[in-house]
Write a structure and sequence with these properties.
Blueprint: E1 5-8, E2 11-14, H1 17-20, H2 29-43, E3 53-54, E4 65-72, E5 78-83, E6 90-92, H3 101-116, E7 131-138, E8 145-151, H4 159-169, E9 173-180, E10 192-197, E11 201-206, E12 209-214, H5 223-236, E13 241-247, H6 253-257, E14 262-269, H7 272-284, E15 290-294, H8 297-307, E16 313-316, H9 325-334, E17 338-343, H10 346-358, E18 361-363, E19 367-369, E20 379-386
Parallel strand pairs: 3-19, 8-9, 13-14, 13-16, 14-15, 16-17
Antiparallel strand pairs: 1-2, 4-5, 4-7, 5-6, 7-8, 9-10, 11-12, 17-20, 18-20, 19-20
Helix pairs in contact: 8-9
Length: 389
Amino acid sequence: MKNNIVTEKGRLVCTKFKSCGGCAFEQEYAEQTIRKRVSVSNKLRFFGGVSRLETMGDPYRYRCKVTRVYKKASNGQLISSVFKSKSGGCVPVLDCMLEDKRLCEIAYDLGGVFSRFEVRPYDFETGKGCLRHIMLRKGYETGQILLCIVTQPGTLKKPASLANEIARRFPDITTIVHNECASSMPLTLGKHEQVLTGDGYIEDRLLGLSFRISAGSFMQVNPQMTAALYAYAREQLDDGTGTLLDAYCGTGTVGLICAGKAQQVIGVEKTPSAIEDAKRNAKANGIENARFVCADATQFIEELAARGEQIDAVILDPPRAGASSRFIEAVGTLAPKQVIYISCSPDTLARDLRLFKKQGYRIGKPRCFDMFPHTRHVESVVKLTRAGL
């Protein structure tokens, strides 16, 4: 298969740009960032636009997570492909200029291993086949690699033999897990998981702390910009904060990074495996002033408000859909002195900031971070302060 990444005029260009759809821009990176800043400033113009847009020095190979589906070629070999969420189809790819090169190499070469073990791709239309997708994650500082093989339940034969062959072919893979999923939605994980080799997780370091990353853990895919984003969020938090509530805490990353500026941290997240990782992360880093609760963030904060609990600051990093109006109203009832909002969607951020303003918060000027160069996505951080303080 011919490499789809070529170098033109000193920059990487992908020949799959139109067929893949994963990238939104083909122009020079500097032009992209200008367009992004203008776009985000327009969406947040009610709050004075953005203070600045932090960009990357090298906007390539930043993704440390790779997901692939496989399709059978005419010669019977399985070809590594990128899933197209809008159409439901897939595009064969050898490489991706946004993703870690070694992970791309492994993903492509795995097709040959799966072919020899007669692992058939799963067909969502017919319900036949085995292999739904694979996911690779790599520690930016540690170099550790996790491979998660996701199949339809009960369809993968001889998983131990397959894992042993993969480990022999790719000795840099630290751990291999087998996940079984019956969902009708592609690229999802099931609840049943078996560790085939290694510990079932990898570790990486961020801003001086060590974090455990399992297949189902949420961790930003651009480690370099994540460090800048979270360092800025921590900087916005007042020194000597009493109780900090980390909503949508995932594996506890943000709360643990900010733990040194608060007397205590309470993290809340509805995914049980993420909470277990958060507890382990706190213990591994010797952080004793943080505790984590497995619960829906909105329900949990409503219960805190009903009990009249004192929360001095809230930091939230919700999914793309943003925070719910119920959540924001509950925050208004709790009345913490400050809220640090980390957002991955300027549209939902603008909507939510209007609701926070109605709850009596002054809105600072957002700062943006180009977490995903060559795409339209931007991360933002904004500090909200209780009016009258």
